[in-house]
Specification:
Elongation Factor Tu (Ef-tu), domain 3, 6 helices, conserved putative lor/sdh protein from methanococcus maripaludis s2 fold, alpha+beta, 34% strand, six-stranded antiparallel β-barrel
C-alpha cells in the first residue's frame, strides 16, 4: 500500500543531485566566444536651431525661428553652434549655416592682366597737318580764289594771285640770267625766286615762256579746308603776312582725358578704339601717340592724344567720341574676384576658407583692377580659397555668436546670484527671445 510514495521521493532526490552537480561544475570564465551586449543609446542634452544656438528645446521638431528641423546636442559632441575664435581671428561656423547663407568660394589664380579703360574725348585737327600760306614780299591781292573759312581746297588749287613789284623785278633778273648763259648767274637768280616762295613748277613755266608774270599764284599744297583766312580781295600785303591756314583731314587727333589714378596705365604705342555718334556701329582704330606731361588742375585728369586715320573725312573736328584704351599686358599676377576684397578705408581684407567650416580674415595689398579680377600683391598664395560672396553675412554671424558667448557667463553668474538656474525655452514657446531680431543685416533670420 506504501510503495508509490517511496518511488516519487526517489525521483525527486535524483533530480536534485543532478542540479547540484551542474551548478558545481559550471564556471562562467570557461565559456568562450563573443558576448553580445546591448547598444547604449545616446541621449541628447537638448535640441537647438543652428541659426539661433542659444535657444534650447527639450523635444525634437521644427524650429520656430527658421524653416528647418532642430538639431540634437550630445554631451560628447563638440560645440558646433558657436564659432571657435583663434588668436589670429579665425573662426568656425557650422557648415549647414554656411550653406544656408549662400556663401560662394573662389580660387586665388595667377592670370595675365591687361587693363582696358574707357574715356571720353574730342576729335581735333592733326596739328602736324596744318600749313600756313604767307607772302614774302610786299604787294596787293588782285585775285582771291578762296574767300571763306571752312571752304574745302584740293592739292594744287589756286588760293590767291598777288601782284608784287619786288617779285616782278626778281623774275626779270631771272630771265636776263637765262639769256646770258652764265651758269652761276642762272643758279643765283633761280634761288632768289625760290626764296620768295615760288615753286619749281612756277619757275619752269616762267623760263619756258620767257616772260615775267605780273601776278604770282599761291597754290594749296594738300587737300584740306581753310582754318584761317587772313586777307580779303584787294588787301595790301606786307612780308610775313599770313594769307591762309590750311588743315588736312587725312588724319585727325582724338584728345581724351583719363583720371589721375589711371594715367600711369597708358603709354605711347598702346592700342585704342573710338566710336562716334555720327558713324554708329563703326570703330576707328588707332594708337596712343602722346601722353601730355601736365595734369589738369581743374579736372585732375591726364590728357592723351590718339592719331586716327580719316578716310572720307567722316571724322570732323569737334565731334565727341567714346574711347576704349588697351593698356600693355602685365606679367602674370595673383588675382581674386573683385567682390572678394573688403575695403575698410584703411586696409583691404579677404576671408580665407581653411575648409568648409573654418574661415580666417587676411589683410592683403592690392594692385590694379581689371574687369572682375583684382591683383593681389601681398597676403595670399596661389590655390587658396577665398570667400567671394557672403563675407558680411559670415562676419555678422561670427560677431553675433561671439557676443552671445560673452553674454552666456554673465547670465549664468546673474542667475547664481539670484539662486536660480537659467532654464531653456520650451519647444513651441513663441515668446522665446530671438537674438537676430533688432540686429541689422540679420533680417533674413527672422521667423
Amino acid at each position: 500500500m506504501n510503495r508509490p510514495p517511496i518511488a516519487g521521493l526517489a525521483g525527486l532526490a535524483a533530480v536534485a543531485v543532478l542540479t547540484a552537480a551542474v551548478v558545481l561544475l559550471y564556471k562562467p570564465g570557461s565559456v568562450e566566444g563573443p558576448v553580445a551586449t546591448a547598444p547604449v543609446e545616446r541621449k541628447p542634452l537638448y535640441w537647438y536651431d543652428p541659426m539661433v544656438p542659444d535657444s534650447h528645446f527639450e523635444q525634437p521638431g521644427k524650429s520656430p525661428f527658421m524653416d528647418m528641423q532642430l538639431v540634437p546636442k550630445y554631451a560628447d559632441a563638440p560645440d558646433e553652434a558657436a564659432p571657435a575664435q583663434d588668436d589670429d581671428g579665425a573662426f568656425r561656423i557650422d557648415p549647414r549655416v554656411v550653406q544656408n547663407l549662400g556663401v560662394r568660394l573662389a580660387t586665388v589664380e595667377r592670370q595675365e592682366l591687361r587693363q582696358r579703360l574707357l574715356a571720353a574725348g574730342m576729335i581735333t585737327v592733326d596739328e602736324h597737318r596744318i600749313e600756313a600760306v604767307q607772302v614774302r614780299a610786299a604787294g596787293w591781292v588782285e585775285q582771291l580764289a578762296v574767300r571763306a573759312v571752312g571752304d574745302p581746297v584740293l592739292r594744287g588749287q589756286l588760293l590767291a594771285a598777288v601782284y608784287s613789284p619786288e617779285l616782278l623785278a626778281a623774275q626779270d633778273e631771272f630771265l636776263l640770267a637765262q639769256r646770258s648763259g652764265d651758269a652761276g648767274l642762272k643758279d643765283a637768280s633761280r634761288a632768289r625766286l625760290a626764296l620768295f616762295g615760288l615753286g619749281p613748277a612756277q619757275i619752269r613755266r616762267i623760263a619756258a615762256r620767257g616772260q615775267a608774270e605780273r601776278r604770282v599764284e599761291y597754290l594749296a599744297s594738300n587737300d584740306g579746308y581753310v582754318m584761317e583766312l587772313g586777307v580779303r580781295q584787294g588787301a595790301m600785303l606786307s612780308p610775313g603776312m599770313s594769307l591762309f591756314q590750311i588743315a588736312s583731314l587725312d588724319t585727325v587727333w582724338l584728345v581724351a582725358e583719363l583720371p589721375e589714378a589711371q594715367g600711369a596705365a597708358i603709354r605711347p604705342g598702346d592700342g585704342a578704339s573710338a566710336s562716334v555718334a555720327a558713324v554708329p556701329g563703326e570703330a576707328f582704330a588707332g594708337k596712343v601717340e602722346y601722353v601730355y606731361p601736365e595734369l589738369s588742375g581743374a579736372t585732375r585728369t591726364v590728357k592723351l592724344r590718339i592719331a586716327l586715320r580719316n578716310p572720307g573725312a567722316r571724322l570732323r573736328p569737334g565731334m565727341y567720341a567714346n574711347v576704349q584704351l588697351d593698356g600693355a599686358a602685365r606679367a602674370e599676377a595673383l588675382t581674386v574676384p573683385t567682390e572678394a576684397v573688403i575695403r575698410t578705408g584703411t586696409r583691404s581684407v579677404v576671408l580665407v576658407a581653411e575648409d568648409e567650416a573654418h574661415f580666417r580674415p587676411a589683410a592683403v595689398r592690392t594692385g590694379v583692377e581689371v574687369g572682375e579680377r583684382i591683383e593681389v600683391l601681398e597676403g595670399l598664395s596661389e590655390g587658396q580659397q577665398v570667400v567671394a560672396s557672403g563675407q558680411f553675412l559670415l562676419d555678422s554671424e561670427a560677431s553675433l555668436r561671439g557676443a552671445l558667448d560673452r553674454l552666456a557667463p554673465i547670465e549664468i553668474e546673474a542667475s547664481h546670484e539670484h539662486g536660480a538656474e537659467p532654464s531653456p525655452p520650451e519647444r513651441g514657446d513663441t515668446n522665446a527671445a530671438d537674438p537676430h531680431l533688432g540686429h541689422e543685416g540679420h533680417q533674413g533670420h527672422q521667423p
